[in-house]
From TrEMBL:
Organism name: Mycena maculata
Domain N-acetyltransferase, residue spans: 33-182
Domain of life: Eukaryota
Any Pfam family: Acetyltransf_3
SUPFAM superfamilies named in the record: Acyl-CoA N-acyltransferases (Nat)
GO molecular function annotation: protein N-terminal-serine acetyltransferase activity; protein-N-terminal-alanine acetyltransferase activity
PANTHER family for this protein: FAMILY ACETYLTRANSFERASE, PUTATIVE-RELATED, RIBOSOMAL-PROTEIN-SERINE ACETYLTRANSFERASE
Protein name: Acyl-CoA N-acyltransferase
């Protein structure tokens, strides 16, 4: 089955769009090859997977990490001006019980970085997550954003969208050994550690809640989407 989001715990729309970008559920047969063709190794520095040797490697990641998890869904981001795949964005750790989720799989392909794409994709997704059901959203109460402490660009992106820093989770992530150089500020391990060659990472936790969204952040996000390059 091509739909990697088939087990997601909420119904997903066929698309979310404005005049600049469109989000559609990620389909391996439609989007995986274009994604792999557009990435560069450095884009994976702060991710728990990659670089990708083949398209099949990426599909395997989707099959093991996304398809069986009812709390995870991934969208393909389409740039409407060019019609090209511009990246991915999604949600992880979604809870129907507690009406919350975390933004994840934020990967903007290099040629679309520092353009309108990321702000518009994130804005569309936030509307879907935090708008009330009567407005076409899920009506969640909380959306989180997590970034390794030295991934300052991710933290800044979240703060521009109205997320607030809430604290640091220490030793929150075991970094893949292949990414030690990119994450040289990660903590060293102790003698006898089960993964002695993998650095440890602290993560900055940010959050955006429904009352902040309705109290002015929605308008801030909409303005950001309009003024993006």
């Amino acid at each position: 089955m091509d739909d990697i989001n088939a087990n997601f715990c909420f119904p997903l729309p066929r698309q979310l769009q404005n005049e600049r970008v469109k989000l559609v559920p990620f389909l391996a047969s439609t989007h995986a090859a274009a994604f792999c063709a557009g990435v560069e190794d450095g884009i994976f520095s702060y991710l728990s997977f990659g670089p990708l040797a083949t398209v099949d490697d990426f599909i395997s990641i989707l099959d093991t990490r996304v398809r069986p998890d009812p709390g995870t869904a991934v969208f393909a981001v389409i740039d409407k001006a060019s019609g090209e795949l511009a990246g991915t964005i999604g949600v992880v750790n979604t809870s129907t019980l507690h009406l919350k989720c975390e933004i994840g799989f934020i990967i903007t392909l290099p040629r679309f970085q520092r353009t309108h794409v990321t702000s518009n994709a994130a804005g569309l997704l936030l509307h879907f997550l935090l708008d009330a059901p009567a407005q076409g959203g899920l009506g969640l109460r909380r959306v989180s954003w997590e970034a390794v402490t030295h991934n300052t660009s991710s933290v800044r992106a979240a703060e521009r969208l109205g997320f607030r820093r809430e604290g640091v989770r220490r030793w929150n992530w075991v970094l893949p050994e292949s990414k030690n150089e990119a994450n040289e500020n990660g903590g060293a391990t102790r003698d006898g550690d089960p993964k002695p060659n993998s650095l440890g990472g602290d993560c900055i936790m940010l959050g955006l809640c429904w009352d902040e969204w309705e109290g002015g952040v929605r308008e801030t996000v909409d303005a950001s989407m309009k003024r993006s390059v």
